[in-house]
Amino acid sequence: AAVELGPFRHFMQKEIFEQPRALGDTVDGIDSFEPALFGERAASVFGEIDSILILACGTSYYSGCTAKYWLEAIARIPTQVEVASEYRYRTTVPNPRALVVVISQSGETADTLAALRHAQSLGHKHTLAVCNVGTSAMVRETELCMLTRAGTEIGVASTKAFTTQLAALYILTMTLAKQRGMLSADDEAKGIAQLRHVPSALHAVLALEPQIIAWSEEFARKENALFLGRGMHYPIALEGALKLKEISYIHAEAYPAGELKHGPLALVTDQMPVVTVAPNDVLLEKLKSNIQEVRARGGQLYVFADADTEIQSSDGIHVIRMPEHYGPLSPLLHVVPLQLLAYHTACARGTDVDKPRNLAKSVTVE
Ligand code: G6P
């Protein structure tokens, strides 16, 4: 059936607003973290592996970067993430006990597919795909897989595919943690409850749209923006910057906030908007001092803060408060306002949001 726009202006906006449904479908029916979710052979494969090698491109690469934080902290499994086009052409040290994970919306991205085949040719026998298309080459060529249930994604800038990938990667993390004896029954129940809560948490985040539209009017007049995050929200800052450049053509860069003083601080003037992802985690106090460093140079801060975070709006510091504090799934919720900010900034600049210049939805040639 033809995919209709309904009340939305662009497919990207429709897909952003579909995320509660997409997430609900992706986690539907999961009431414990079982290897069988990834295929028949997963229990034995997961028992053999000693590390993970993630290969992906674009937005899918950033979901892999986020998953690295989960996999190492929760499942205690060493994880490496690499851009597929780099991996396929460099000399690496293959480890047959590593699980190679390819992440792809389409399952057809040429570089990711070639990286998978390259890994196999080096003797990597354990492979897993996180993919949105069940009939794709990547799903056919991997031993294990988890399908995301985002549904057809039309906007070139990926949104619902990203958040459903994060859910799948979180499920992978929890499954490995359980199999490795690192997840109590209590923590498993908590993890399931957190996943179940995501669709309603997403609805509440999407309700922030009017406040984000107000910010986007300021952003539309800028030519540069800086995005800051720390820890597992650093890849979310990267994804926010990628979304902004892809569709609004504003030059955007993301930095782990602790690196500010090693370069990007030189760029901060009163013309530089600095978007900050500020969840209420162990790094919050450090992030607050990063915010002060920017403020002292006249930079305009745009902060997405968790419900219980004591960062107040003041001169040069604009705060949008997220409805809750989300725990380990926080990256999945914090990326949504960044999608909306990029979307509305692009609309205000009048760009072709669903088909940005020079970009393709699926890059099937090198
Ligand atoms: C293109 C798209 C991106 C996407 C990337 C990887 O660059 O414009 O939105 O993230 O390809 O695509 P994949 O289908 O492998 O996730």
- N- to C-terminal separation? 31 Å
Range of helix content: 40-55%
Task: Give the overall form.
Answer: globular
How many helical elements? 13
- Tell me the structural class: alpha/beta
Tally of strands = 10
Average pLDDT metric: 95
Rg over C-alpha atoms, rounded to the nearest angstrom: 20 Å
Q: Give the amount of beta strand, in percent.
A: 15-25%
How is the biggest beta sheet arranged? 5 strands, parallel
Low-confidence stretches: none
Ligands, deduplicated = 6-O-phosphono-alpha-D-glucopyranose
Q: Which strand order spans the largest sheet, edge to edge or round the barrel?
A: 2-1-3-4-5
What sequence of helices (H) and strands (E) makes up the elements?
HHHEHEHEHEHEHHHEHEEHEEH
